[in-house]
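Example 418, ligand zinc ion.
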Amino acid sequence: MGSFYASKVFPRYPPSTSYLYSAIFTLLESIIEIGDGSCDFWMDPWLHSGPLLNHSAGLVPVNDFMTDGYWNLLKLHEYGPNDQVSNILQCEVRRERSDEVIWKASNHGNFNFKATWQLIREIQPFSGVHKAIWYKSIPKKVSFTVRRIVQSWLPVDNILQKRGITLASKCQFCGSGENIDHIFIECEMAKSVWQYLHDLFGIQYKNYSSPFHLLINWLDKSPIVGHIRMVIACIALWAIWEGRHKNKNEDRVISKATILSRIFQQIKLLGDGGIFKPVNWRGDLHRVTSFGCNLRVESPSLPRVVKWTKPPDGHFKLNTDGASKGNPGESGCGGILKDKEGSIIMAFGVYLGRETSIVAELKAIQEGLHKLCIKGIRDVMVETDSQLSIQLIRSTCCNWKLRPMVNNIKDMAEICNA
Ligand SMILES: [Zn+2]
C-alpha cells in the first residue's frame, strides 16, 4: 500500500533517502518491500515497526561520553564510532561553559551577512590579464576603461546599433565602420601607436585579433606583475579611447603624436608620484629617460643584529619559529631548547602541510611545549618573533579556529611554568 502511495507522489520511488520521503512515508503509514535494498537502512520504513532510527534509545547528549568534563575513553571505544574516536579526542572541551553554536564561515564564529555572501557568491577565476589590469600602479580610470574594452562594454557604434539605435557607424580616426577591435587594433591610427610602442620596447608586433590578445602578449613580455610594459599597454588603450572620444565629442583632430604624448605624460606623472620602483622597470631601466621619469631608489636596509640572550639561572629557553610559503601555503615549524649556558638540550622541526603563517607560528610553540611536558622540563622561557602569537596567547583568543590551539598552549605553559 505504501508503495502505491509513494509511486503516485514520487515517480522515482524507491530509493528514498530524504527526510521528506521519510516524513511522508510515516504519515501514510507506508512500508518498503525490500528488493535490491537501495533504500536507507536507518531512515526508511522497511521494517513493520517503522524506521530503525525511531527505535534508537532517543537523543544521546555528548556529555554521556564524558566524565567530569573529560572524554571517557572507555565509553567512546565501547559505544562510539570506533573510526572517529581519535577525532573526538582532539575536539576541545570548554569546561564550565554551555554549548555554543559557531558560524564556521566567520573568524569570530558569529553569524554575519558578509561571510554568508562570500559563501554563496560565485567567484569567477581571475585571469592574469585581469589581475594586471587592476594592479595598484595603474590609475583606476585606466583600469576601468581597459576592463570595459576587454569586456566589450564600450558604447561604440556597432554595439549601439545592436541595441536598436539608428546611426551611421564611422571610425573617428579613419572613417571606416566602428567596433572595438577596429578602434584599438585594426585602425591605422591604433596600428601606428602600437608599432611605435612595440619598437620602443623591442617587442615584435603581431597581427592581434583583439585588445585582449594584445594585452596577453604584453603581459607575456612583462617579467613581473605591475611591470612598466603592462602599465604602458593599459595606458595606451586608455589614451586611444580618450583620443576617439575627443574626436567625436569635442570636434578635435587627435593625431598619433597627441596620443603618444598623452601616454608619455601619464607615465611621467606616475613616475613623479613615486609609483614606480626600479623593479617595475626590470630589463627596461635604460628606457626610463625616454619618459623623463624619476625613479625612487630606496636605500638598502641595514642588517639588524639579532642576539640570543641567556635565560635566568635555573631556567631554560625555548625559541620557536613557524613559516609558510604563501598564506596559506606549504608550511613548517621548528624550535630549539637551550640551557642558560647556551647548550642545546633539544631541537625539533615539523612539516605542517598547507597552513596559514599564524597557525605555523602557534604550532611551533605548541609542539615545543608539548615536548617539554613529555620530558618533564619546567621553568622555561618561550621566545618567538611572532607578535600576533604573543597577542593571541596573552588575550582572549576571538578566532574560533585558533582558540583550541591557543587554549592548549596556555594549559601547557602553565604546566611547564613557562
Ligand atoms: Zn579607424
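Summary: The mean pLDDT is 84.
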